[in-house]
Automatic annotation (TrEMBL):
It comes from the Bacteria. SUPFAM superfamilies: CheY-like, PYP-like sensor domain (PAS domain). PANTHER family: PAC DOMAIN-CONTAINING PROTEIN, PHYTOCHROME-LIKE PROTEIN CPH1. It holds the Pfam family PAS_3. InterPro entries: ANTAR (IPR005561), CheY-like_superfamily (IPR011006), PAS (IPR000014), PAS-assoc_C (IPR000700), PAS-like_dom_sf (IPR035965), PAS_fold_3 (IPR013655), Sensor_kinase/Photoreceptor (IPR052162), WH-like_DNA-bd_sf (IPR036388). It catalyses: ATP + protein L-histidine = ADP + protein N-phospho-L-histidine. The lineage of its organism: Bacteria, Bacillati, Actinomycetota, Actinomycetes, Geodermatophilales. It comes from Blastococcus haudaquaticus. Its EC number is 2.7.13.3. SMART domains: ANTAR. One of its GO terms (molecular function) is RNA binding. This is histidine kinase.
Length: 225
C-alpha cells in the first residue's frame, strides 16, 4: 500500500527554502500582478497558480500588516514613493514567515507611474535578535543593495523608452545606444539613463556630449506634405 501523502502541516521545516527571494510586478492601469516562481513557493502555492488579485494577495499578509502594505503600494502609484517593509505573511498551509517587501515605482516616458516592481525576501531565519545583530545588519545592507539595483533598472528602462520614442528604434537598439553613450562619454549606463530621464522630465538639460550622440542617432524630421 502506498504511504499516505504528507499534508502541508507535516512537511519538515527544510521544505521551505531559507532566504527565498521572489520578484513581482503590479500594473497600475490594469491592476494585474505578475509573480516569479519563487513568490509562489514563498506563499506555499503551486507555481502553476495564477497570480492573485490585490485583495487576495493581502489575505496572505498578516492582518496587522495589510493596511501598511496596501498604503505603501498606493503611495508608490500615486507619488512614486519607493518602499521597503518588514511584514509577516501567512502561507497557504498556515505557517507564518517574516519577509521584507521592497517596491520601486516604474514610470513611462512622461514620468507617470505605470507599475510597481519589487522583490520579496524571506528573512525568517535572519531576523534581528540580541545575539545576532551582525546578521541583521547584513540583511539591511542586502536590502539596500536590492533597492539600488532596482532603481538602476528602473532608470535604464525609462531611458530606453525615451530613446525609443526619439529614434523610432526597438528595445535592444535603445539599450545598445545607452551603452554606446556610456562608452563614449565615460559615464556609467545608470548615470546616462538618469541624466536622460531627468532631462525628459524637465529637471535639467542634457550634457553637450550626450546631446550630440543622441542628435546623431535621431532620424531627420520628415517634410510635411
Amino acid at each position: 500500500m502506498a504511504s499516505p501523502a504528507m499534508s502541508p502541516q507535516r512537511m519538515p521545516a527544510r521544505a521551505i527554502p531559507e532566504r527565498v527571494a521572489g520578484r513581482y510586478r503590479y500594473d497600475r492601469l490594469s491592476g494585474a500582478w505578475w509573480w516569479s516562481p519563487e513568490m509562489f513557493t514563498m506563499h506555499g502555492l503551486p507555481s502553476t497558480s495564477p497570480p492573485p488579485a490585490t485583495e487576495e494577495y493581502l489575505r496572505y499578509q498578516h492582518a496587522a500588516d495589510r493596511a501598511r502594505v496596501l498604503e505603501a503600494i498606493a503611495q508608490a502609484c500615486a507619488d512614486g514613493r519607493a518602499f521597503a517593509l518588514e511584514t509577516c505573511i501567512v502561507r497557504s498551509d498556515g505557517r507564518e514567515r517574516a519577509v521584507v517587501l521592497v517596491g520601486e515605482p516604474q514610470r513611462d516616458a512622461g514620468g507617470d507611474v505605470v507599475a510597481v516592481e519589487g522583490i520579496c525576501v524571506d528573512i525568517t531565519d535572519s531576523r534581528r535578535s540580541d545575539s545576532d545583530v551582525g546578521r541583521a545588519q547584513s540583511l539591511e545592507a542586502e536590502v539596500g543593495q536590492m533597492r539600488a539595483a532596482m532603481a538602476s533598472r528602473a532608470a535604464i528602462e525609462q531611458a530606453k523608452g525615451i530613446l525609443m520614442l526619439l529614434t523610432s528604434c526597438g528595445d535592444q537598439v535603445a539599450f545598445d545606444l545607452l551603452a554606446h553613450i556610456s562608452s563614449h562619454t565615460h559615464r556609467k549606463v545608470r548615470d546616462v539613463a538618469e541624466v536622460i530621464t531627468r532631462s525628459a522630465a524637465g529637471h535639467g538639460s542634457l550634457p553637450d556630449d550626450i546631446r550630440a550622440i543622441i542628435r546623431d542617432a535621431c532620424p531627420p524630421p520628415q517634410p510635411v506634405r
